[in-house]
């Protein structure tokens, strides 16, 4: 179902200005930076064949082990490029200035990437995980023929939405519906792959949505995004690979805010729905509640480069803004709870 | 969802994992004294400043392995050092980490809950005494031979190198796809009511299978 929003997502791209790291420069003068348009749904290592020609004459002799950094932070190549940009650049930088290295791979920090195969398998493993979450098993991905799997990956690599749209039905992913389309689909239960849990009456109960949440926390309010301090290390970011689970209820519509808050219950939102831990042992129950109100606050949630209004129905967000491996990647900036 | 006391579909809830983990660590301490104990590491989220008391992972670290040239097929367990006797090792020039004579390999094991697959996942890493990480080629020499052949067959789907879910570092992971199925098989053979397996025994049963991949065996007493 390639609708307009999905087309925009697939066409989304980040202009990159890639600088060769000075320790890799063996020519004089140093080469100018390379300008590349990077698909949002793609991965940095896939750009290497486009970038390397610019620099190959400047490189010192030896074997390449290529990696990128942004202001000193090594970039995790298995995170889609658009997500990296949304997360690391509070104020979007255009073009995005990255540094490329051909030596000195930081293998104590980054998992290896020795070619397109590594990127492909990262994609396939994420797809399996997403399918497991949505359908309750990953047999459709596993049973896909080798050539179909190849073609699916190629369609993602090339940003070919038409090819992808022809192949993705073979995955038989259960769809995540909002309340309105739910009624229509309930009339044809066979169409659901549903390993969403069913009760005796065959009514759909619990559904799970694959989400990857990248959370940055800052301590004070800010006027402009430019004032948000930069990230020094990945330890500044909390990564949550956790599905959003919900009970389908008549008339209930989940917003993006509901989804994010449920994934971070100890941080934002209604504390009562989270831990069953007794707080009444404390005499200061009232005070504890008062403190709990000093919660963190979602300042910004970005998906596919869009600053989202948190009241948008979550099902729309998922169906239109997810990545080709069926994960929804959300970059969140929160203001930490004040103590 | 049931109370989490029993597992009937091969899966664990996050609360079930906490319970199973503690039960596992306790039994290990009692029955497996040739190893150090597992410790529970709570997830204290530095960025979010608040600790989530319920969530965490199990950690067993600095297990010293001495590589040997020959492994007898019946005893495919890791040669855990109980004394300082070092064995001579061959130097393989093709591996990334030069395996010097008397070089000891250390291993860390973490059992982490996967909310996607709703099962535990084993992560591990190897390093030498200087702290330099060991490559998979080197680690293969320490693994039981059946694991190594499985590795050759399923390069991308059996043991994968991925980022540790909480530590921002590369670790090796035993892929969880399929765990649910064989745990179900295990629980079908357990006594109780039908296919129920008490949560306390989940990790023990799980580890009795998974541990063998990395050469860690558990004594039978732990399964009671």
Automatic annotation (TrEMBL), chain A:
Residues 9-102 form the Autophagy protein ATG5 UblA domain. Residues 208-332 form the Autophagy protein ATG5 UblB domain. Residues 116-172 form the Autophagy protein ATG5 alpha-helical bundle region domain. Keywords: Autophagy, Cytoplasm, Isopeptide bond, Transport, Ubl conjugation. Its main location: cytoplasm. It is found in: Cytoplasm. It comes from the Eukaryota. It holds the Pfam family ATG5_UblB. Required for autophagy. Belongs to the ATG5 family. Conjugated with ATG12. PANTHER family: AUTOPHAGY PROTEIN 5. This is Autophagy protein 5. The lineage of its organism: Eukaryota, Viridiplantae, Streptophyta, Embryophyta, Tracheophyta. The gene is LOC104706015.
TrEMBL record, chain B:
InterPro entries: Atg3/Atg10 (IPR007135). Keywords: Autophagy, Transferase, Ubl conjugation pathway. It comes from the Eukaryota. Coiled coil: none annotated. Belongs to the ATG10 family. This is Ubiquitin-like-conjugating enzyme ATG10. It comes from Camelina sativa.
């Amino acid at each position: 179902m390639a609708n307009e929003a999905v087309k925009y997502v697939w066409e989304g791209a980040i202009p990159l200005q890639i600088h060769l790291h000075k320790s890799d420069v063996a020519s004089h003068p140093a080469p100018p930076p390379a300008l590349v348009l990077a698909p949002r749904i793609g991965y940095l290592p896939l750009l290497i064949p486009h970038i390397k020609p610019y620099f190959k004459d400047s490189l010192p002799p030896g074997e390449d082990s290529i990696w990128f950094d942004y202001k000193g932070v090594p970039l995790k190549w298995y995170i889609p490029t658009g997500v990296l940009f949304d997360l690391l650049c509070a104020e979007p930088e255009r073009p995005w200035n990255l540094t490329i290295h051909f030596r000195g791979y930081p293998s104590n920090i980054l998992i290896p990437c020795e070619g397109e195969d590594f990127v492909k398998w990262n994609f396939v493993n994420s797809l399996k995980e997403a399918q497991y979450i949505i359908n309750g098993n990953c047999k459709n991905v596993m049973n896909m023929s080798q050539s179909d799997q190849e073609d699916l990956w190629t369609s993602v690599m090339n940003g070919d939405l038409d090819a992808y749209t022809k192949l993705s039905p073979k995955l038989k992913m259960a769809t995540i519906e909002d309340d309105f389309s739910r009624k229509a689909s309930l009339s044809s239960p066979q169409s659901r792959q549903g390993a969403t849990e069913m009760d005796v009456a065959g009514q759909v109960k619990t559904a799970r949505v694959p989400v990857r949440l990248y959370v940055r926390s800052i301590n004070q309010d800010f006027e402009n995004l430019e004032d948000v301090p930069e990230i020094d290390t990945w330890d500044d970011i909390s990564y949550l690979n956790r599905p959003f689970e919900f009970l389908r209820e008549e008339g209930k519509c989940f917003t993006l805010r509901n989804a994010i808050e449920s994934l971070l219950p100890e941080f934002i939102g209604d504390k009562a729905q989270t831990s069953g831990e007794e707080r009444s042992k404390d005499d200061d129950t009232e005070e504890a509640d008062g403190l709990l109100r000093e919660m963190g606050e979602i300042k910004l949630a970005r998906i596919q480069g869009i600053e989202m209004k948190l009241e948008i129905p979550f099902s729309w967000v998922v169906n239109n803004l997810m990545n080709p491996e069926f994960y929804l990647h959300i970059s969140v900036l929160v203001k930490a709870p004040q103590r | 969802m049931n109370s989490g006391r029993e597992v009937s579909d091969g899966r664990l809830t996050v609360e079930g994992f906490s319970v199973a983990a503690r039960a596992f660590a306790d039994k290990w301490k009692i029955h497996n004294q040739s190893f150090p104990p597992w410790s529970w590491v709570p997830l204290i989220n530095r960025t979010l400043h608040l600790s989530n008391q319920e969530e965490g992972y199990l950690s067993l670290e600095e297990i010293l392995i001495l590589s040997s040239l020959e492994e007898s097929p019946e005893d495919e367990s890791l040669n855990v050092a109980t004394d300082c006797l070092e064995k001579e090792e061959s130097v393989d020039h093709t591996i990334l980490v030069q395996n010097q004579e008397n070089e000891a390999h250390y291993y860390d094991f973490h059992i982490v809950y996967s909310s996607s697959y709703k099962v535990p996942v084993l992560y591990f890493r190897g390093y030498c005494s200087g702290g330099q990480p060991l490559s998979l080629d080197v680690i293969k020499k320490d693994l039981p031979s059946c694991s190594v052949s499985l590795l050759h067959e399923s390069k991308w789907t059996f043991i994968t190198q991925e980022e540790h879910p909480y530590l921002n570092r590369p670790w090796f992971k035993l892929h969880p796809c399929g765990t649910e199925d064989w745990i179900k098989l295990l629980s079908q053979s357990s006594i109780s009511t039908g296919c129920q397996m008490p949560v306390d025994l989940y990790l023990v049963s799980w580890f009795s299978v998974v541990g063998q991949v990395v050469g860690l065996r558990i004594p039978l007493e732990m399964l009671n």
